[in-house]
């Protein structure tokens, strides 16, 4: 059977604080690691989705409503549901799992992810990814 969790694959987080949020697999660990001997993935996702905007709004209001709050987390495959979608450009964020332990590196990675997500959102690409999942 082929590998499902590849970098760039859009997944839904099923459990925990970010349950119901969409995320992108940044790096996958099918065989596990020394610390986590099970299949897991480093994912970058959206914690707070952008709000709806329309033409009557001013520039400032549009800018404020277009903000995205991302998260970066290592999750077990059991807590991820892969979708048929994949995103190519958003996986450029260079994040190593060991960087997630250092608060400053994690903050920097989250900022880079936010910049990438907002840039992609403003281009109007991958609209499905930037909409809240209704369930």
TrEMBL record:
One Pfam family this sequence matches: KOW
- Stated name of the protein: 60S ribosomal protein L27
Per its record, what are the GO molecular function terms? Answer: structural constituent of ribosome
Instruction: Give the species this sequence originates from.
Output: Ceutorhynchus assimilis
Can you cite a GO biological process for this protein?
translation
User: What InterPro entries does the entry give?
Assistant: KOW, Ribosomal_eL27, Ribosomal_eL27_CS, Ribosomal_eL27_KOW, Ribosomal_eL27_sf, Translation_prot_SH3-like_sf
Q: Which GO terms describe its cellular component?
A: ribonucleoprotein complex; ribosome
Q: Which family does it belong to?
A: Belongs to the eukaryotic ribosomal protein eL27 family.
Taxonomic classification: Eukaryota, Metazoa, Ecdysozoa, Arthropoda, Hexapoda
Keyword terms of this UniProt record: Ribonucleoprotein, Ribosomal protein
Q: Which CDD domains match?
A: KOW_RPL27
PANTHER family membership: 60S RIBOSOMAL PROTEIN L27
Q: Where is the KOW domain?
A: 4-31
